[in-house]
Amino acid sequence: MKILFLGDVVGRAGRAAISGQLAKLRADWGLDFVVVNGENASSGMGLTAEHAKLLLDAGADCITLGDHAFDQKDMLRFIDTEPRIIRPLNYAKEAPGRGARLFSDARGRKILVAQVLGQVFMKRPFDDPFSAVDAVLRKHPLGGLAQAALVDMHCEATSEKMAMGHWCDGRASVVVGTHTHVPTADAMVLPGGTAYMTDAGMCGDYHSVIGMDKAEPMRRFITGMGKERFTPANGEATLSGLYTETDDRTGKARLCVPVRVGGRLIPARPV
């Protein structure tokens, strides 16, 4: 199975890049399944129903969220009507929606998508992400009903993301980190056959401070005082993420390649 994961979509620039480029990538690379993290797609904070529909219409098979999952209040209602949107497993027991779901690609092959929030350096406490993921992977073992499984680990600490990768090694096809918006250079297949990357980066304008217009973040760093709210940068966006090919029989990753398309980052693409 050819799987593309795209990192956090930030604002109008990120949405435009998805709308303008994803359909062509699906065709050119023969993609079977596309997962997009959309939690910053609406004004840089959360995801509206309207923008969720835009990402799905552009070619995403599944949208994952994050700690800003319900910053846009209409998502509280919309998520229960749209099964292709996944919120974190350990967000809150009362939260609407689901944190994991089994999907089918066009050929009927099953792929599990799950998302979990980390605990280290996060603004609010969340339940243990490792036990949450463990329960889901035990229920959907590779080589059984699921031909592939992808885990989106949404958190600050690189060490916590790495620990999740090793915890899932051999049990998930892909473990990829999101949230920090900066792509890491460590894409690899772990010894047990799990494709791993600490952070997929963002789909947004990199002439910015993690996707936000740089003036206000710089003011706060330099003066210690805020003047305005953060707003997404609206220059040309780069699509950033991870491309993985898996074995249908075992669910293990054969290869993984970091993806950089358009914008300001050095391009990278599957050969």
Portion of residues in helices?
10-25%
Backbone shape: globular
Range of strand content: 15-25%
Question: What number of domains?
Answer: 1
Radius of gyration: 17 Å
**Major sheet: size, sense and barrel closure?**
6 strands, mixed
Q: Determine the structural class based on helices, strands and strand pairing.
A: alpha/beta
Number of DSSP strands? 14
> What number is the mean pLDDT?
95
CATH class: Alpha Beta
CATH fold name, please? Purple Acid Phosphatase, chain A, domain 2
Q: Which stretches of 5+ consecutive residues score pLDDT under 50?
A: none
Number of helices: 6
| Strand arrangement, major sheet | 5-4-3-1-13-14
For the record, the CATH architecture stands as 4-Layer Sandwich
**How widely separated are the two ends?**
16 Å
Explained architecture:
The protein is an alpha/beta fold. It has six helices and 14 strands. It has a single domain (2-205, 237-261), classed as Purple Acid Phosphatase, chain A, domain 2 (4-Layer Sandwich), CATH 3.60.21.10. Helix content is 24%, strand content 24%. The strands form three sheets. Strands 5-4-3-1-13-14 form a six-stranded mixed β-sheet. The chain has a six-stranded mixed β-sheet with strand order 6-7-8-9-11-10, covered by helices on one side. A two-stranded parallel ribbon has the order 2-12. The relative contact order is 0.18.
